[in-house]
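Most newcomers find our protein records easier to grasp once they have seen one. A learned vocabulary of local backbone shapes supplies the integers on the structure line. Here is such a record, shown just as it appears in the course material:
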Amino acid sequence: SHTGEGTFYDPALGSCGIVSSSSDPVCAISHLLMDAKKTADPNKNPLCGSTILVSYNGGKQVPVKIVDRCVGCAQDDLDLSPSAFEAMGADKNAGRVKIAWGFA
């Protein structure tokens, strides 16, 4: 499992070629993890579409789908859709919270 910081963003067309909205349970993972599995076509990265379980403050695990790479993220950070950020009980006013996550 991984521990890092969680932030949120308004998803659109991500590096996986998947169009998402702020109400979709999706995330962008660190460019370091994404690029470790790099393929010639970024849409075919094996991490694309994978489900991870993320939690905040020891709370419930929320399933989110990987749809993008986060250039500003440290290795174990996630950039989440606003709905996923709130679903795990985090306050959007905080902006950045400590999270734990792992592949489902």
Notes: The longest strand covers residues 62-70.
